[in-house]
Amino acid sequence: MLRKLTRTDHLIQQFDTVLRTLVPHAAQPSRPSPAADVRDGEMDDLERQHAEGLMRINHTGEVCAQALYQGQGLTAKLADTREQMEQAAQEEIDHLAWCDARIEELNGRTSYLNPLFYTASFGLGAAAGAIGERVSLGFVAATEEQVGKHLDAHLDKLPIGDRRSRAVLEQMREDEAHHERWALEAGGSRFPFPVKFGMKLMSKVMTKSVYKL
Ligand SMILES: [Fe+2]
Ligand SMILES: [Fe+2]
Fold first, then answer.
1. Binding-site residue ranges for Fe cation
2. Each residue's pLDDT tens digit, 166-199
3. Which residues have C-beta within 8 Å of that of residue 182, sequence separation ≥ 6?
4. Which reaction does it catalyse (predicted)?
């Protein structure tokens, strides 16, 4: 017989999720990496280093996405959208794991600042979830829109030879566009320009610091 989960069970579950997000190589993808059958072209040391910095930023972005979904999961009622929200969160875990694996291939490491960005994003997600479903979904849509633009920029900046990172980012781009569409169709509010501008500033701080740290 299934036991009803207690408050302590939920806390342990939550803690387990935090560790799976923050500990390198702990996230388990549900789909194989889009880079699985892709061969890299030529890259020199500088190009590899640059690719590593870019993929570190993308990995931290996915840590933030996890925190955002987890924070919302804690406070939002999500009467009709929980299933889709969980499906999107699972796809974000794939992104996290693919970026992590690619960073390792490039002999790099994930960012030291991840716990900081995780905490901030978790708080924002929980706050949006507590305000209400439309804001919560609107926040998902605005974030995904921004991530999409950011991925486009990174696809331009990646070294030509870095075909494996490119394959990962292209699939992520497709998934994020799908998350954005779903969140808007499910009734998410369109955020006004000043809120989007604030989010853009925050992401600038993240990308500048994480490229090196
Ligand atoms: Fe993602
Ligand atoms: Fe997404």
1. 62, 92, 95, 144, 176, 179
2. 999 999 999 999 999 988 888 888 877 667 777 7
3. 84, 88
4. a 5-methoxy-2-methyl-3-(all-trans-polyprenyl)benzene-1,4-diol + AH2 + O2 = a 3-demethylubiquinol + A + H2O
Q: What is the pTM of this model?
A: 0.85
Tokens of 23: 């500990």
Domains in the chain (CATH in brackets) are 45-206 (1.20.1260.10)
Question: What is the Å distance from ligand 1's center to 159 Cα?
Answer: 21
Q: How far is the CA of 143 from the centre of ligand 2 (A)?
A: 8
Ligand 1: centre distance to CA 139 (Å): 14
Token duo for residue 148? 């999409």
Q: How confident is the model at residue 16 (pLDDT cuts 50, 70, 90)?
A: confident
